Amino acid sequence: MSGGADPRATLARDGVVRVRRPLARATVVGLVRAFPGAGSRRHLLAEPAVRRLIADPAVRALVTRVLGRRAAAVRGLLIDKREGADWALPFHQDRVVAVVARRDTDGFSGWSLKDGVVHALAPGAVLRRMIAVRVHLDACDAGSGALRVLPGSHRHGVLDDDATRRLASTTAEHVLAAGVGDVVLMRPLLLHASARSGRVGPRRVVHIDFAAGELPGGLRWRACVC
């Protein structure tokens, strides 16, 4: 599930691809220094280290090959698993988007407020124009909460709980071990999960959502960095 110079074929088939250490070393070092262990965070797109990540030529090349040159970063998260702050997640899809304000629009549901920012569950038409770029700041494997994925599950569209359970019981999962500086590209509709980290050290991942195009119905992305 690793990709070479052009990961599009693997991403289209599996919904996920791992790229080994594509970033400039200064970009990775800057992220490690910016997030030394303060716990998981939302709304990272204003952070200087994250803006350097978004502008990194390798990131721009990976994203534009998949989404085109008009793609922009629309949400940034730090996922920081460590001793005392550890959790497991069942198989799920990443359907949440952050917007400026609520406007009732066809296909959007599950409205919520997180850290003062409006979020909603987006429809498949929006999610198919998005990818997540996940940069690993620590090495991880099956014993430290690495991502578990069901390859190809993104092609089934938006799934309800019953369909998710059926696919999870009939599809062979793959564990995405990663090293420091490795990048994982993932389609939001891919079913993925993670176990608790069984180790003392951290498992930090900077997760950036990229999207091609505006939202429908007058909705606006909460943040948009090109």
What features would you highlight for this structure?
globular; 28% strand; alpha+beta; Jelly Rolls; single chain; 6 helices; 5-stranded antiparallel beta sheet
How would you portray this structure in words?
This protein is α+β, with helices and mostly antiparallel strands. It has a single domain (24-212), classed as q2cbj1_9rhob like domain (Jelly Rolls, Sandwich). The chain has 6 helices and 12 strands. A 5-stranded antiparallel sheet has the order 1-10-7-12-2. The chain has a 4-stranded antiparallel sheet with strand order 3-11-8-9. It has a 3-stranded antiparallel sheet with strand order 4-6-5, with no helix packed on it. Strand 5 (109-114) and strand 6 form a beta hairpin. Helix 2 runs antiparallel to helix 3 (48-55). The mean pLDDT is 93.
The DSSP helix count reads: 6
Number of strands: 12
**In CATH terms, what is the architecture?**
Sandwich
Q: Strands of the largest sheet, in order across it? A: 1-10-7-12-2
CATH superfamily: q2cbj1_9rhob like domain
Average pLDDT score: 93
The overall number of domains is 1
Shape: globular
Name the beta content range.
25-35%
Contiguous low-pLDDT stretches (5 residues minimum) are none
Order of helices and strands: HEHHHEEEEEHEEHEEEE
CATH topology: Jelly Rolls
**Distance separating the two termini:** 28 Å
CATH class: Mainly Beta
Radius of gyration (CA) equals: 17 Å
Summarize the amount of helix as a percent range.
10-25%
